[in-house]
Specification:
The protein is mainly alpha-helical. Helices cover 72% and strands 2% of the residues. It has five helices and two strands, in the order E-E-H-H-H-H-H.
């Protein structure tokens, strides 16, 4: 199958799963929560500290500061991408010239592309707040607090899934624009 002279078709089960992943961004939080619950279950099963409870305070603080920094920078980059995307998707060919490839996208496709980007930004913002909040809550305690740490990791894993979707959308828009 070809979409505006860009090959987007794949056959088989992978395409169905990938399409489901692309169209259900809210499921990111479910997948992330399941992953953290598996982590917690494994820790309980093997009688290990939950999440990062047993890690030293300096290392925990560094990790959460790094997560906050990365999430903030990535949210800014994603927001900038939205601005550029609006300009690219809104661009029209001059009168008398053939239609630009991105003009052929339907309003539904344009909305779906925009939603991919706009869905990622709140999760990244929440990750910044949760990471910094965890630093404040834990302070210099010898052991970490597993509940705020679990929240941070759910948000981090969900943000990674959202960013995968953003990367896919950027790749598709670039492929269509250069077709």
């Amino acid at each position: 199958m070809s979409l505006y002279e860009v090959d987007v078709g794949r056959s088989g089960r992978r395409r169905t799963l990938w399409r489901w992943f692309l169209l259900h961004p809210r499921a990111d939080f479910v997948w992330a929560a399941l992953l953290v619950l598996l982590w917690l279950g494994a820790a309980l099963l093997y009688r290990q500290p939950l999440i990062l409870e047993g890690v030293g305070p300096a290392s925990r603080r560094t990790l959460f500061q790094t997560l906050a920094t990365l999430a903030g920078a990535t949210a800014g980059l994603t927001l900038t991408s939205v601005s550029m995307l609006i300009n690219v998707l809104g661009k029209k060919a001059p009168p008398g010239q053939r239609e630009l490839p991105l003009e052929k996208l339907t309003a539904t496709h344009r909305r779906q592309i925009g939603e991919v980007f706009l869905f990622a930004i709140p999760g990244l913002g929440l990750l910044v707040v949760a990471s910094l909040g965890t630093i404040v809550l834990e302070g210099d305690a010898a052991t970490g607090l597993w509940i705020p740490e679990a929240v941070v990791f759910v948000l981090a894993f969900a943000s990674v899934l959202a960013l995968l979707r953003v990367a896919w959308a950027l790749r598709r828009v670039l492929a269509i624009a250069t077709a």
